[in-house]
Design goal:
Belongs to the cation transport ATPase (P-type) (TC 3.A.3) family. Type IIC subfamily. The protein is an alpha/beta fold. The protein has 40 helices and 29 strands. The chain starts with a helix and ends with a helix.
């Protein structure tokens, strides 16, 4: 109903427009010259737009805000839960019951049955609605990203205006701390850095400049994008796009206009409902026609029609499924997995491919110092942390380590936030970018207590600074030194290693100072390549000491219009490398996924080398996998794993004309590949499909939001169930398109959380594996619950069928059926959700299309095996009680007309006793009660054998499920209450039984357990045999 309403009232784009949105942004606004750009936008770079231009453009382009999506009204959602599937069938039954009562008012049973069915369907619908409803707040989250105010130059005046009034062509200024109000081409910048993490996934702040740096619109440094943040510096530029036409607006529209895929569980339940509905209506119609043909009154035929439907439809099943999913969702929440969409619980269990983000999910999202290269030796950072280096204020440093400590402490903008002295250093919050914060924490841990970072900075105060920028690629600081005859100031340099080395003439090791020579350069390049190949971010650092003769203590250092102090001739001290380390346990979790037949792919916006290194360390790329890596680095680091089977400039199938088989032959030695976003665009959908088919282990690097979406769709075209993790706004289209979207609870944006189906509260990939196990477990347990529930359908229908076919008195009433379906069976069915997993749950491959929730093997088990045994127990009880009261079983055949006739009050039994209508009804109620009790007794044993589909019940455990133990007690107590409660039993047409009559079902239950234990033994020892093929559901 929801989908129909959306289609009827859809305001979303046509599929052709949606496909256009999926393509990468193609524009030259960041490449053309400023005169050309101003001419294109009809603006002036000095004075901006005038009032007339602004009014015209606001009419043309509208306000600078995002268009809200179409939202399904809550009443439509409620109606879809109340009137779809089984509910509609029960509504029809209820209306027929009430119609029958209105025609034949003396039969209150029809009225009671109709009311009960209405209450059941309304309560089930409300329950499902309350459990599954969730706010459709995706666009509200996008709107939170819109800045409220913007600084704009119009008519030559600097104004502060509402950001919604901006138009293309406006001249805008912003500074550190501002949220960028539109997509802007930058004209001037001063030390400007922006945080693009929500858009591109890059964790480091990105330097902005007025020069274009990349043909790719998203990668170019002269562009600032709507809703990203300026973290430092300031800039001015021209508004290129506003509102829905911005990059963020495109992502928002792409996210909200994507039609979410139907979950596998939803498809299974819908298939099951359709199947059971067809069976129920067909059976009911056939027996309605037969009853009319054999002379039954129309009213009685309608009642039988309703009875067959009631017996065929497990009224409590949907409520049971919803409760099972809710219970699992609560259990997962305790394990840091917050479920937003209940059916996503099972979808996670069916997942065959995980497309995982890198930062914060596979890694700790905490940049950490990993190695240092000092004195031409590589040291592990953890070893140096324990060295406790002590610096002295008035004495020169004694060795290279002390020099390194001075430079790394002073040449930094990072500081600790106040009042954190009692918090461990690694967990303290900082001001500053990730790399500098990592160095700050490392130095705080490394320095002795007498010379901590703030103390050292107070000893040698900063007097001048050249901030890092994209052209210099270094950060330089000047610090005053007191009371030393050999040095009045020190200049510290830190930045890109190759740039720092250009400014150096000597290098320092523990033996002293030496001129830089070829041997040193070879060592430098080798270390750079080794550390860079591990995906670590490397910075070089150097210093120079200024003498008092040239730079006395009162010298004023200046950097404007050129520095008045040396910026060359430095002494190179070393390299420091940092990495966002893999989370503990991720590699184990990935290995468990692989054992479970699940492929794990990395999809990140980071550099291919970094992505490959993390993929190796987390086992996404297996340790012994031969990897094809075509990525080219801007650093001197060249991948040593490039395989010569491929041409360096082209894919093996660059024309995309080779068959998949031929491509497989050419790549038979390779299992993994690192693929960049640019290559994804070149390959196109068909080429991407081939890559996915050929390679088992794939790392997607430098991807855009639209490319992430294309990756998801490519796997889905292959028939995979795809889970996608993400934390940024850029991830939201892929999160929504995926079969299950998984957002990060700590670092995730509000947009990603709203688009996702599941939220990881601890941002840990290992929690996904826990979720997969829970998803597989709930699917197993749903099978068990449904199997248990369906079993009672056969003994519920059989009395009506024999009543119609061979004419015996009715063995089970319609009200009694509802007592089973909505009373005694509900809690036991729900208790299956608490059953612990079987031993092989994470060693099976993901379930395929042939492993349906309800399949023909389950029907055979429940209807032809367990159902018939339960029916036999019921009829044995029925015939024994009839026999004990004088009616031999042969005498009952064909007696239906006389038995049900109110006019006959002298019906003889085999002893010649005459039975009135009222006496016969009391006997019939006793027989129906015995039949009901026999079903309950066999359901005890059915519940126990439902605990496991493959394991022995002995190894699985009889009493390891406390909820199931309670359910057995509850089921028995409820049955006793219904049978023996004065007044209630009469209303339900049940009679108190002799306690000995409860034993009639026990032999059948014991036989059921023995046969099923043998069946499972055969399945375990002969998994390809006939028994497994026919009965393993």
């Amino acid at each position: 109903m929801e989908r129909l309403w959306m289609r009827m009232h859809s305001l979303s784009m046509k599929s052709s427009n949606l496909n256009i949105m999926k393509q990468d942004t193609k524009t030259d606004n960041h490449l053309i010259t400023w005169p050309e750009l101003c001419k294109r936008f009809k603006t002036n770079i000095e004075i901006g737009l005038n009032d007339t231009q602004i009014m015209k453009r606001q009419k043309k382009y509208g306000l600078n805000r995002l268009t809200p999506p179409l939202v399904v009204p809550q009443w439509i959602k409620l109606c879809s839960h109340t009137f779809e599937g089984f509910a509609m069938l029960l509504w029809i039954g209820a209306l027929l019951c009430i119609t029958a009562f209105l025609i034949e008012r003396n039969n209150l049973e029809n009225l009671y049955l109709g009311i009960i069915l209405i209450v059941v369907v309304v309560c089930s619908g409300l329950f499902s609605y309350l459990q599954e409803s969730k706010s459709d707040a995706i666009m509200e989250s996008f709107n939170k990203l819109i800045p409220q105010q913007a600084t704009v130059i119009r008519n030559g005046n600097r104004l502060t205006v509402n950001a919604e009034t901006l138009v293309p062509g406006d001249l805008v200024e912003f500074k550190g701390g501002d949220r960028i109000p539109a997509d802007i081409r930058l004209s001037t910048t001063t030390g400007c850095k922006v945080d693009n993490s929500s858009l591109t996934g890059e964790s480091e702040p990105q330097t902005r400049s007025a020069m274009d740096s990349d043909p790719n619109y998203l990668e170019s440094r002269n562009m600032a994008f709507f809703s990203t943040n300026c973290v430092e510096g300031n800039a001015r530029g021209l508004v290129i796009n506003t509102g829905d036409r911005t990059v963020m607006g495109t992502i928002a529209n792409l996210t909200t206009n994507l039609e979410q895929n139907e979950t596998p569980l939803s498809k299974e339940i819908k298939h099951f409902i359709h199947l059971l509905t067809i069976v129920a209506v067909t059976l009911a119609t056939i027996f309605f026609i037969i009853s009319i043909w054999i002379g039954t009154s129309t009213m009685d035929a309608i009642v039988f029609f309703i009875a067959i439907i009631v017996a065929s439809v497990p009224e409590g099943l949907l409520a049971t499924v919803t409760v099972c999913l809710s219970l699992t969702a609560k259990r997962m929440a305790k394990k840091n997995c917050l479920v937003k969409n209940l059916q996503a619980v099972e979808t996670l269990g069916a997942t065959s491919v995980i497309c995982s983000d890198k930062t914060g999910t596979l890694t700790a999202n905490r940049m950490t110092v990993s190695h240092l290269w000092i004195g031409q030796q590589v040291f592990v950072a953890g070893d140096i942390e324990h060295a406790h280096i002590e610096l002295r204020r008035y004495e020169p440093p004694m060795n290279a380590f002390e020099v390194a400590a001075i430079i790394l402490t002073l040449c930094s903008k990072a500081t600790f936030q106040p009042n954190q002295e009692s918090i461990p250093i690694g967990r303290r919050l900082t001001y500053g970018d990730a790399s500098e914060s990592a160095i700050l924490k490392f130095m705080e841990a490394t320095l002795e207590i007498q010379s901590k970072v703030e103390t050292v900075r107070q000893w040698w105060p900063k007097v001048a600074e050249i901030p890092f920028n994209s052209s210099n690629k270094y950060h330089l600081t000047v610090h005053r030194v007191d009371r030393r005859n050999d040095c009045s100031a020190i200049v510290c340099l830190k930045g890109a290693p190759e740039n720092v080395l250009k400014h150096c003439t000597t290098y320092l090791n523990n033996e002293g100072q030496f001129p830089i020579n070829d041997r040193f350069r070879i060592d430098f390049e080798g270390t750079y390549r080794t550390l860079g190949g591990k995906g670590e971010r490397i910075l070089g650092f150097a210093w120079i000491q200024l003498t008092p003769n040239q730079f006395p203590t009162d010298f004023e250092f200046k950097v404007e219009n050129g520095a008045n102090f040396p910026i060359d001739g430095f002494q190179f001290v070393g390299l420091i490398s940092m990495i966002d380390p893999p989370r503990a346990g991720v590699s184990t979790a990935v290995d468990r996924c692989r054992a479970a037949g699940i492929k794990v792919m990395m999809v990140t916006g980071d550099h291919p080398i970094t992505a490959k290194a993390i993929a190796r360390s987390t086992h996404i790329i297996s340790p012994f996998t031969k990897l094809y890596d075509k990525s080219q680095s801007s650093t001197p680091i060249i991948s040593t794993e490039t395989n010569n089977n491929f041409d360096n400039d082209h894919w093996p199938d660059s024309s995309l004309s080779h068959s998949t088989e031929e491509l497989c032959k050419r790549t038979k030695d390779l299992k993994g590949v690192v693929l960049t976003g640019t290559e994804i665009t070149k390959l196109g959908p068909s080429g991407l499909d081939r890559i996915i088919e050929v390679f088992d282990e794939i790392v997607f690097a430098r991807t855009t939001p639209k490319q992430k979406l294309l990756i998801v769709e490519a796997f889905q075209r292959k028939g995979e169930i795809v889970a996608v993790t993400g934390d940024g706004v850029n991830d939201s289209p892929a999160l929504k398109k995926a079969d299950i979207g998984i957002a990060m609870g700590i670092t995730g944006s509000d947009v990603s959380k709203q688009a996702a189906d599941l939220i990881l509260l601890d941002d840990n990939f290992s929690s996904i594996v826990i979720g997969i196990e829970e998803g597989r477990l709930i699917y197993d347990n749903l099978k068990k619950s449904i199997s248990y529930t369906l079993t009672s359908n056969v003994p519920e229908m059989m009395p009506f069928l024999l009543y119609m076919i061979i004419g015996i008195p009715l063995g089970l009433g319609t009200i009694t059926i509802l007592c089973i379906d909505l009373g005694t069976d509900i809690i036991p069915a729900i208790s299956c959700a608490y059953e612990p997993p079987e031993s092989d749950i994470m060693n099976r491959p993901p379930r395929g299309d042939n492993d349906q929730l309800v399949n023909i093997r389950m029907i055979k088990m429940t209807y032809l095996y367990v159902g018939f045994i339960s029916s036999a127990a019921g009829f044995l009880s029925y015939f024994i009680i009839m026999e004990q009261n004088g009616f031999h079983w042969r005498q009952l055949f064909g007696i239906r007309r006389q038995w049900d006739s109110r006019a006959i009050n002298d019906l003889p039994d085999r002893y010649g006793q005459e039975w009135s209508y009222q006496a016969r009804m009391r006997l019939q109620n006793a027989c129906q009660t015995a039949f009901f009790v026999a079903i309950v007794v066999t359901q005890w044993f059915d519940l126990i054998i439902s605990k496991t589909r493959r394991n022995s019940i002995i190894s699985q455990g009889f009493c390891n499920n406390d909820v199931m133990n309670f359910a057995l007690i509850f089921e028995t107590a409820l049955t006793i209450f219904l049978c023996y409660c004065p007044g209630l039993n009469h209303s339900l047409q049940l009679d108190p039984l002799k306690w000995s009559w409860w034993s009639f079902g026990l032999p059948f239950g014991i036989m059921l357990m023995a046969i099923d234990e043998f069946r499972r033994y055969e399945i375990r020892h002969n998994p390809n045999g006939l028994v497994a093929h026919e009965t393993y559901y």
